[in-house]
Amino acid sequence: MRPIIPVRALRVSARPVLSTSSRAFCKREFSSAINRAPSRLLRFAALAAGAGIAGGLTLAMQDQLSAEAAPRLPSSPDLSNVKLELIEDSSAPMRERMAAFVKLLQKEIVDALQKEEQDGSNAVYTDKNGKSVDAAEGRKPASFIVEAWKREQGGEGISCVIQDGVVFEKGGVNVSVVHGQLPPSAIRQMSADHGELIERVGYVTEGPNAQVDSLPFFATGISLVIHPKNPFAPTSHLNYRYFELGHPEKLRDGSPNPRYNPNEPAAWWFGGGSDLTPMYLYEEDAEHFHKTVKAAADSQDKAFYPAWKKWCDSYFWITHRDENRGVGGVFFDDVSLPSWSKARSYIPLQDGSKHSTSELVSSLQHDKDSLFSTMQALGHSYVPSYVPLVHKRKNEPYNEDNVEWQRLRRGRYAEFNLVYDRGTKFGLMTPGARMESILMSLPLHARWEYMEPSSGTGREHSVAAAGRREEAVRTTPADELKAREIIQSVLEKPREWA
Amino acid sequence: MRPIIPVRALRVSARPVLSTSSRAFCKREFSSAINRAPSRLLRFAALAAGAGIAGGLTLAMQDQLSAEAAPRLPSSPDLSNVKLELIEDSSAPMRERMAAFVKLLQKEIVDALQKEEQDGSNAVYTDKNGKSVDAAEGRKPASFIVEAWKREQGGEGISCVIQDGVVFEKGGVNVSVVHGQLPPSAIRQMSADHGELIERVGYVTEGPNAQVDSLPFFATGISLVIHPKNPFAPTSHLNYRYFELGHPEKLRDGSPNPRYNPNEPAAWWFGGGSDLTPMYLYEEDAEHFHKTVKAAADSQDKAFYPAWKKWCDSYFWITHRDENRGVGGVFFDDVSLPSWSKARSYIPLQDGSKHSTSELVSSLQHDKDSLFSTMQALGHSYVPSYVPLVHKRKNEPYNEDNVEWQRLRRGRYAEFNLVYDRGTKFGLMTPGARMESILMSLPLHARWEYMEPSSGTGREHSVAAAGRREEAVRTTPADELKAREIIQSVLEKPREWA
Question: 20 to 30 A from A216, CA-CA: which of A184, A311, B165, B405?
């Protein structure tokens, strides 16, 4: 093997706020510096210099003598520059109000999860030989890495990620506030996902009669996926977002656009939801999650939860497996006002997937403010809906069988996100997007077994499947197999929980 | 947790050949029977009965007293009913010749891999605490499970899968021979992938002027993915297939189709290739693989390898990661004759992806026979191109760092297959397809790390990335980091190997 040190160009499109200089960071120089450095201290200094750490953080070099002293980023988002008062100010633009709200919610959630991680876990892990050990392997709780970034094309965000903790195996809570121009290809994708909301905008964007080259957009949202370490603690996902499409200032031929109005979007909508993915079913946990979310939705409009619970079961369906990703929650998209839509219902819900037949009809009078209120009520329900479940399950003793099943279920989670999830697909197709922020939802560990006997072709009607089942019965305790079967049956046939 | 035993309907679309009766196998009865059975013997008997094992295999019940005695399927495909003489018979239809060839090749490959597994591994595994153990953990070599199946809609196949072996972590070698009617949605997908080959067929299949409702098709092929256990042994993939589109007997309005001819397809083509995915780069391994495949291709036409190597690098590109799935090999599709295509080149190659600019131009006179010859030469080159690499690397000692990197690379493999691979996507969209045969390509274990410092955002220009790199330098040996960097650089910039 020849020692080849590659020159690798920096492919950063989301520029970190804390970084300052030397954007042409060259891997060759970085690697050579490391290899030349005689001591760990110097090796770190080379790394720090190579990475351009200078202005944002002051490096106390003497601290580097301790192996613990890696450069530390804050473990909680900083709200000192966020105008939280905008959230309540109904005269302010919704863009700014929603952006302030998602940052507030991010901090609320990250702090609650960090506290749960800090609190630790005393779970005992038993391996195949029956040997029991501390599941945390003597490690200390992990901290969220909080990183602010700017998008060159316009916008900013904060990524908060925790990895390899004692309570959380992997999790990310991201917010972003971005704006720019949507090219026809992205509009096409958006039309496929959002139906008539795009039609309503009323511009021809492709073909010989195209009136405009692109449409201005604005988007802000919060997105999270949390994968706990303990197989009995459920995974959860949340996303709340606000989207605007604007009128272009000029038409394609250069003439002024008569419809141009910077203060009035051509279309706007809210979308989002939160949902739960347990590896093992505790009915009381699924009920707690759903009831908490439902109470928040009901506080705004009793018509919301039934429609959005149904939509959630439909959206997270893994068609090729004929099963759901989890036990659901709420999901909705394109939530706007009747004046923005041709639909009959008061708050129109268009679902592109053929699974959903839900249509939300409410007798209440909503306005943009009351819809934003709904986002807030639902967003704030996340911590009380989910964190108590982690708290309750994180100390459960578990064994190798439980971990295998957990990883297998996480393989299905990865399948859903890579094959179906709108946000992930949109991100993967967006040049210049920060891939690992998009793929942060993927688990640390996943497993795919051929002919798995509780959830795969091992259940089928064949000699080989019978062999796999016989093997499972021989090597796996009966209560474990039964527990797998119970959650599997719920995934295949969604239930009501609240 | 309430003990809920679900009734689960059988969702078998690929009916196993060996099974016979009781297709309405009911999970509730099966589970209850297990739970009532007082002994392992009876529990197995319940399983066997539930699975409807009767005619195909004779169950010697006394054998079940030993826990080892699961029903055994053959570990090598049976060729006794395959007319191998057809392969050489140029007067026989290509459908039958190719079907016989892929079955022959499947046996050749499965037997070679099974021999390698049987031969075992004496690799030593060292964990994070420096403790070294037998990597096989005292387990015995695994056997391929060979299972023949029939497709209700028309066709048959043989799946050979090995899992959790001492040499192979997971691998499958599948052949299928299927036929039926392609609905307009599948024709649309095929048009996207195969460009003018479909156009050439010349039927309007959609819209108010549609002439036909569907098109008859025939497809036969072999498809394999092998994931060895040792992180220094590379993963490999192979696929060779033959496809025909036919003329429908009747047009949509019920009138006879003047173009109907059961002996002359409307279009036919070969496609396939084989490629290598090492986790660590041994240049001599990549060279051996490429040289062996190139020699086989050169034996037919020296124009093949250069064009198909390039196409391979383009096809297996993971766009969102800006890196290749592996170090390549050969890949081609739509290989037909000029009379079947409008393209200028002798053997037209149309690549739908925007990456490829390759166009194969040969001065040799090919016919359908010589193209089939090429499939055979390439197919037979797989065992000598790949198995010696496994043999050479399977005993290498390895440690926890190596396994982590292997699983991380396998996460990327899963990303490619779920997001981009034509065959997988086509399969996931096909109702009634056997999902776990399609997803057999997924690894047993995969890993996704946020900010991984050798291949992910941990290389970026930020304080957090610098922290991740510092952590990697502190916790991972320098030679391991360098080895990761070497393979990463090759994945990002494909090289010539032969």
Answer: A311
